[in-house]
Amino acid sequence: MAINIVVADAAGLPEGVEFPPLETVKYGWEQYPQLDDDDIAMRCWRADILVMLSTAIDRVHLEKMPRLKLLIIAGDACRQLDQAAALDQGVELLAFPDAKFGEQGAAQVVCNRIAKAIDHYIRNLEHKGVAT
User: Fold this and answer.
1) Residue 109 sits in which domain range?
2) 37-60 as b/e, with b when 16 or more CB fall inside 10 Å?
């Protein structure tokens, strides 16, 4: 089974900043500049891992993502998260509250850290026999 990863709001990344390829072999990666509320439900419903860099995510969104296992939030998205809703859905959280996206070097460091965290999470799933 491939893990589906969605980055819902990458428009705030400086030009030239990208998430590096993951080490894991089986994954799908979708990245959007900025999804609005309706698009989040339509584009993220199959996501196993969701990355939010600035957009708020709430209970209504989470209820429309039955496969979601890990929510990674960074920067402004951390201050807007409905944490109780995520926990009620059984979604694990990983937060980068001090992430800064205004400067290219700092933004690339955050993207690299997020990619490493995703790789680590998928390896743990594989080790548990959840993902292959």
Assistant:
1) 3-11+23-127
2) eeebeeebeebbbbbbbbbbbeee
- Whether pTM > 0.85 for this model: the answer is yes
H-helix or E-strand spanning residue 96: strand 92-96
**pLDDT given at position 132:** 44
Domain with residue 68: its CATH number is 3.40.50.720
| Pairing, β 70-74 against β 49-52 | parallel
Domains in the chain, number: 1
Where is 43: in which H helix or E strand?
A: helix 37-44
- In three-state secondary structure terms, 27 is strand
Which H or E run contains 23? none
